[in-house]
What we know:
Elements: H1 2-26, H2 31-53, H3 59-85, H4 91-120
Amino acid sequence: MSNYKAINDRTFDFSIRIINLCKVLDESSGVARTLSKQLLRSGTSIGANVEESQSAQSTADFVHKLEIALKEGRETRYWLRLLIATELMSENRLLPLLGEINELIKIIAAIVVKTKQNRQQ
């Protein structure tokens, strides 16, 4: 359970970092502001779904919530990469967030795989 608490805390902290980034992007106009809204939705949804999974009604529901978090993580990674590729935000500023989202994706995916394996046993 302590590993699960760690992912809960990490996704919460990641959401805070995404919110702070989006505050900066939102000060811009046009494309950056539009992308910030997409990034805000997907980046904060990861932690919300991880949190929701704690109240899952079944193992299948638990896995489903984490799979949604995984999809949101991949979407968030996409928006971060897009911000770098279009030079709307410096690569140096976003590399730490990219590193963290890659780790979160790996951790959540591992939890899903392990849970599915345990369910089959």
